[in-house]
Write a structure and sequence with these properties.
single chain, alpha/beta, ABC transporter transmembrane region fold, six-stranded mixed sheet
């Protein structure tokens, strides 16, 4: 929770108002139209009981002329109210979708721009849940709150006035229902909030499991985990069912309590009305009107209760969204330095430290690169290799120390401009479910076909693309499944050439390749390294031995560096690592 317990409710209410104002801007015309439609509909619906009562009196007193007049008015009002209900639904849906999409757009933008170390604290399931569930809950509650508030106000004023006008004695008795209903809400409030929080947390867990499972179907098949995964899924469904049953049971308790009190008051009022009708103090039509207005008054009270119940659920969603969007975003803006136009001179790291929580990963790490070439970083798993790569692309910020590009400290370089100078190619290839040409255009939105073809020729991909029926318009499918691992990496290299960065960072890109594909990719790396700086993390021998310089990472710092032949002669750490790689 982001709010303290003592003033949680007040603070959350203020946060809700601020949150809604932020997103309602630009859509007030829809909101005003919705309020007008709701107001007209409520007025029409509150006139109906009075007209219906007069219609009953005209019928029981055999006044045919009055009966015809009132039945015409009654059905005209019914048609008008039906039209207004349809218009309210249309305007309400338009408003909900408009505002929900604004919130979702903001959350999605926040996800893509959040500092990486903060983003990694959330599972994919949590992100999807906040994006798809919480945003809609908040907007739906706001619209329901507005419409219900108007309904409650009109019903209290009109229905309250009419029941007092019809029978003051019965009206006073009916009004006792209000505090009785409020008491029901107070009894169940805490339990409802607790169940809502449990449901949200379970939703995060469920979404995460679904994402993990559906993203790794091949792994499930390869390790014959179909039964185990199905059992775990069934277990989650059982827990979901139990949680939903608890929520339904709580709702039933609230409904039964409300129905009991409502029925009790109706019985008392009917007994009282029977005496008044017997004495001639009340007509049957007036009693019918009174009873309909009492129903509206009770509906208003139950709407107040329903809003309070929904408020608890919505506040949970709001707190989850606020706790998420309050995380800092990357510094993508800033004063342009023009570094992208500079020729590469140097990349230096001085006294770099980085921790994951209490775990020290990098310890006073130093290195310098002053020329183009292929540089490999090797070391045991967990030694800090990938962390360094993420620091170089400014996904993380160092705890201490500084990184310099052409003598410019990283902290003075806007992230957007820095990433124009550096391309990061990760182990899991970044390919969208789109055409080849559009995937290449991720590096340059104005890319033309001849330039794309030239880049693909340099990495040995063009000839294969030309064998495809749709060539550069070929759809690659989810995660680029149309291409093999080697072809996907070639596409990544072609995109890097199009981006034309000074530096290319490679995080275990040959790990899934066979020997022949690995040699082909390493050949591409060597060609690119004549005009760029390539920094590669690798556990494959081909990329390592062909490097211009190799840095050995050990316990968060570079223990030694040099060429393959040099290190094989003088470094026991390097020989041990190479032997382990070759044994695989």
């Amino acid at each position: 929770m982001i709010f303290g317990k003592k003033d949680s409710n007040t603070t959350t209410q203020k946060a809700m108002i601020t949150f809604c104002r932020q997103y309602f801007k630009g859509s007030y015309h829809i909101l005003i139209m919705l309020i007008v439609i709701i107001g007209l509909g409520i007025v029409g619906n509150n006139i109906l009981p009075s007209v219906y009562g007069k219609l009953i009196d005209a019928l029981t007193n055999a006044k045919l002329q009055n009966f015809n007049k009132y039945i015409a008015i009654y059905f005209s009002l019914l048609l008008l109210c039906s039209f207004l209900t349809a218009a309210e639904k249309t305007a309400g849906n338009l408003f909900v979708f408009t505002i929900t999409n604004k919130i979702k757009g903001n959350i999605f933008n926040k996800i893509t721009r959040m500092q990486q170390d903060r983003l990694e604290k959330f599972s994919v399931g949590e992100l999807i849940s906040r994006l798809e569930s919480d945003a809609g809950n908040i907007v739906s509650f706001c619209v329901n709150f507005i419409s219900s508030s108007i309904l409650i106000i009109f019903n209290f004023i009109i229905a309250g006035y009419m029941i007092v006008a019809i029978s003051r004695s019965m009206a006073y008795l009916a009004l006792i229902y209000i505090p009785a209903s409020v008491l029901i809400y107070a009894v169940f409030k805490k339990k409802l909030r607790k169940l809502t929080i449990l449901r949200r947390k379970f939703g995060d867990k469920f979404y995460t499991y679904m994402n993990d499972s559906l993203s790794n179907i091949l792994g499930i098949k390869a390790f014959q985990l179909e039964n185990e995964m199905s059992v775990r899924y069934d277990s989650l469904l059982s827990k979901q069912l139990k949680l939903e049953q608890d929520i339904v049971n709580l709702g039933n308790k609230i409904q039964i309590s409300n129905s009991f009190i409502s029925t009790l008051f109706n019985l008392v009022i009917m007994c009282l009305a029977a005496g008044f009708i017997g004495k001639g103090h009340l007509s049957i039509g007036s009693f019918v009107s009174f009873n309909l207005y009492i129903g509206k008054l009770m509906d208003a009270v139950q709407n107040v209760q329903s809003i309070n119940m929904d408020k608890q659920k919505t506040f949970v969603s709001l707190e989850r969204i606020l706790s998420f969007i309050e995380n800092p975003v990357e510094d993508v803006n800033g004063q342009v330095t023009g570094i992208i136009k500079e020729k590469f001179r140097s990349l230096s790291v001085k006294g770099l430290k980085f921790n994951y929580g209490e775990n020290e990963v990098l310890r006073n790490l130093d290195f310098d690169i002053n020329s183009y070439g292929l540089y490999s970083i090797i070391g045991k798993n967990g030694s800090g290799k990938s962390t360094l790569i993420k620091l170089l692309i400014k996904l993380y910020s160092p705890l201490q120390g500084e990184i310099y590009l052409n003598e410019h400290p990283y902290k003075t370089l806007p992230t957007k401009e820095l990433r124009e100078c550096i391309t990061y190619i990760q182990k899991e290839t970044f390919i969208l479910n789109d055409s080849i040409i559009n995937n290449l255009r991720l590096a340059d939105k104005d890319l033309d076909l001849p330039t794309a073809e030239e880049a693909c020729k340099k990495v040995g991909l063009h000839e294969y693309i030309m064998t495809l029926p749709e060539r550069y318009d070929t759809q690659l499918g989810e995660k680029g499944m149309v291409f093999s691992s080697g072809l996907r990496q070639k596409l990544n290299f072609a995109r890097a050439l199009i981006k034309n960065s000074h530096i290319i960072l490679l995080d275990e890109i040959t790990s899934d390749l066979d020997g022949e594909s690995e040699k082909e990719i390493v050949g591409i790396l060597k060609r690119l390294s004549k005009e760029k700086v390539l920094i590669s993390i690798s556990h494959k021998i081909e990329a390592i031995i062909n490097s211009d310089e190799i840095f050995i990472m050990d316990h968060g710092r570079f223990a030694e560096h040099g060429r393959h032949d040099e290190l094989m002669e003088r470094s026991q750490i390097y020989k041990s690592l190479i032997n382990k790689i070759q044994d695989k």
